[in-house]
Design goal:
- It is a single chain.
- By secondary structure, this protein is mostly helical.
- It is built from 18 helices and three strands.
- Strands 1-2-3 form a three-stranded antiparallel sheet, with no helix packed on it.
- β2 and β3 form a beta hairpin.
Length: 438
């Protein structure tokens, strides 16, 4: 018995280390992160078994299971003639996000993990990311030697310019820690928000920047008017950067252009010398592409055409969609789809629509309804509830561009956050008081 108790305690400590390190694990290369994710899931279920906790399974979990099941079925149906077994296996691997959702919800239910500790870890990771962003702007190299990608700041992400998306997804959750402080919590929260807003701005990511500006207006209205202070100083920072000496920080030379044009149209006519990007002169297929001189790789950058393609593919495959990893194959080789050679439509709802059709959209909407219903049923502490509702609404807005929710890094960020938000009724039951915002 004593030996079993030791083993269960070790298993729990090991899982906690893995869980609380999730925000930092996203900085790893995809291969290493996939290994981490696999160990996290296996360790979590082993831990629940070792501490003899029965896994709870609710209606929201069943709906999410059906959602991933329809994607898997659609992939099999659309690849059976081509024998594309790789896509089928990758569609099956999407169930890892389902297992993550169940796992996190159960650990919060049994009070084995703590939202406050997670918020502290996120503060550290977000501030570290922002400092690296500043370093890349000033020195053109980050802490690990990473350089800008296509003229955009990457932070700790080597191959993807998603530093702004990372900050935008997680920074609200970190506010929980500041709002728990009994003294000067608004002061510290404002300082934190100024740092994060500035970091998002410098990444040149338009949508995270727009959302950050919207959030910076909503937060003072929802919680405390003193939070407008962060918006004021961010505006000053915004003006200073846009009027900087362009010879001082060449990395910022495209900033004003990027933030002034919505959904990436500027990239169709802009030649960026610092990142060695050129626009092709081909008036047919390649007019929507950017060619990288270093590897001659095509990348589609016209979101209008991409959304149009996504809608056409959805309407042509209305009920169950085309399945996982089929968007590139179908869009690249069909003139009806504008030769929009992209891996996904860069839109949350269009990605769901194209991969799983009307059935998938219905299941995901029902899933969101159940999550929102849990918010409504669990309003014990209103400030917590408002913050969680804001985070969920921001993530599922229909008019925003979005990275793939099925990819390794973007998908893991999305489903990790959804897992936290979906666990809210259990998180709130474990709280002793509401957030202190004065």
């Amino acid at each position: 018995m004593y030996s079993l108790a030791i083993n269960s305690n070790l298993a729990l400590k090991w899982f906690k280390i893995l869980f609380y390190s999730f925000p930092f694990s996203l900085f790893c290369a995809s291969g290493y992160f996939n290994l981490y994710f696999f160990i996290l899931i296996i360790s979590g279920y082993f831990c629940l078994s070792s501490v003899k906790k029965k896994i709870i399974f609710e209606k929201v979990d069943k709906v999410l299971f059906l959602f991933f099941s329809i994607i898997f079925f659609s992939t099999i149906f659309n690849t059976i003639k081509t024998n594309d077994y790789i896509s089928t296996v990758k569609a099956l691997s999407l169930f890892r996000f389902f297992f993550l959702f169940i796992l996190i919800k159960n650990f919060f239910f049994y009070k084995l993990i703590n939202i406050h500790k997670l918020s502290l870890v996120i503060i550290i990771s977000c501030v570290a990311m922002t400092l690296d962003i500043f370093l890349q702007v000033i020195n053109e190299k980050g802490i690990f030697g990473y350089i800008p990608l296509d003229g955009r700041i990457v932070g700790f992400f080597y191959f993807e310019a998603i530093a702004g998306s990372y900050l935008q997804k997680f920074f609200l959750l970190a506010l929980i820690f500041f709002f728990l402080l009994k003294k000067n919590n608004i002061l510290y929260a404002n300082l934190y928000l100024i740092i994060i807003y500035s970091g998002i701005f410098l990444t040149l990511d338009r949508m995270p920047l727009i959302l950050a500006l919207v959030i910076s207006i909503i937060l003072p209205i929802m919680f405390n008017k003193k939070l407008f202070l962060s918006l004021f100083f961010f505006f000053i920072f915004f003006v200073i950067i846009l009027n900087h000496n362009k010879n001082t920080f060449p990395q910022l030379n495209i900033l004003s252009e990027r933030v002034s044009i919505f959904y990436g149209k500027i990239m169709m006519n802009l030649k960026i010398e610092t990142s060695k990007i050129i626009i092709t002169n081909n008036k047919d297929i390649k007019k929507n592409y950017i060619i990288h001189e270093d590897n001659k790789k095509l990348r589609f950058d016209n979101y209008d055409k991409l959304y149009e393609t996504g809608i056409k593919i959805f309407l042509d495959n209305l009920f169950i969609g085309i399945g996982h990893k089929q968007f590139t194959t179908i869009s690249c080789n069909n003139i009806r789809y504008n030769y929009a050679c992209a891996q996904h439509p860069h839109h949350l709802w269009l990605e769901i629509a194209t991969t799983s059709g009307v059935i998938g959209i219905f299941l995901f909407l029902y899933f969101l309804f159940l999550v929102f219903h849990n918010f409504y049923k669990s309003i014990k502490y209103k400030n917590y509830t408002y913050l969680f509702i804001l985070m969920l609404i921001i993530e599922v807005l229909p008019f925003r561009s979005y990275g793939s929710i099925y990819s390794t890094i973007n998908g893991s960020m999305f489903w990790f956050l959804i897992s936290i938000l979906g666990s809210y009724k259990f998180i709130q039951k474990n709280l002793k008081k509401d957030l202190y915002i004065k």
